[in-house]
Amino acid sequence: MIGAYQAQCQARVDAALEPLFQAPSVELTRLYQAMRYSVMNGGKRVRPLLAYAACEALGAKAEQANGAACAVELIHAYSLVHDDLPAMDDDDLRRGQPTTHKAFDEACAILAGDGLQSLAFDALLDPRLSAQSDATRLAMVRVLARAAGSAGMVGGQAIDLGSVGLKLDQTALEFMHRHKTGALIEASVRLGALASERAGDAELKALQQYAQAIGLAFQVQDDILDVESDTATLGKRQGADIARDKPTYPALLGLDAAKAYALELRDQALEAVRPFDAAAEPLRALARYIVERRN
Fold it and tell me: Alpha carbon of 108 to those of 157, 211, 226: distances in Å?
């Protein structure tokens, strides 16, 4: 099921994203080319999938979450562009292609990331992508801003860079990853739910519990794949975290225990959405996919 659903959602969000990269003037052509390159060169689109699935779980049409889906993917892409820079993780491969600063140049990559970040908020508010009430739009902007900024993803990346060579315990490791990776995943689910304009407090609480579990599971599985997979499959340099002496779940818990923990988190996510009906089946399938994926 997840393969067909993923393809459907990928096609939907890609069709919504593509018009956003039309340069408004000749002078900006190269910048917009770099922005498009950073977003449209593949990717699993996990965050847009979560936004669509959360929206549908509440009985709304997936298209109502187009703005949310575009916004979270643009923020994700911007974070990857900046993470790959020489001053950060210094990677030269992403999704099997040269990273943006390699395909263009470092300055252009920095500006492309900046442009993607602001474009995300523009997309979230664009009535052509999806129409919500003004109050809902304001709530959605706040969710995205908090998840993407210093209290969320950016803060997690700062902790990550400051943790190289350190031995973190599990509490500290989870605090970092709930910010670096989990914050945007949680926002994807919450934005999809808000986009439905059908979410009550109980539904939002259940979806938050689901998102917290899969957000952490996603990072645990990433750490496992960094050990077990290969560069061609991953589309990025395998073993990079080990080479940089970064704290990881396999290093802390052992590989078998890390795998068991990923499955435990999956089960927590499934339990959180147990009260939902069949409309939430894509959310359940995504929880399973996150810990079963090989790239």
Answer: 21, 34, 28
Q: What is the pLDDT of residues 218-271, one digit of tens each?
A: 999 999 998 886 665 555 565 566 656 788 999 999 999 999 999 999 999 999
Crossing angle between the packed helical segments 281-292 and 255-272, to the nearest 10 degrees: 180
Cα-based torsion angle of the residue sequence 72, 4, 210, 46 in order, rounded to the nearest 10 degrees: -30
Kindly report each contact of residues 102-106 with a partner whose C-beta sits within 8 Å and lies 24 or more positions away, as own/partner: 103/34, 103/37, 104/30, 104/33, 104/34, 104/37
Compute CA distances 207 → 55, 66, 102, 270, whole Å: 11, 19, 38, 10
| CA nearest to 180, candidates 213, 202, 152, 201 | 152
For residues 196 and 61, is the Cβ–Cβ distance under 8 A? no
- Neighbour-count burial for 24-55, b at 16+ CB within 10 Å, e otherwise: eeeeeeebbbbbbbbbebebebbbbbbbbbbb
For residues 281 and 50, what is the distance between their CA atoms, to the nearest angstrom? 12
The rounded distance, in Å, linking the Cα atoms of 71 and 129 is 10
Quick one: which H or E segment has residue 46?
A: helix 46-57
Residue 193's Cβ-side half-sphere holds a number of Cα atoms within 13 Å equal to 23
240 close to 92: Cβ distance less than 8 angstroms: no
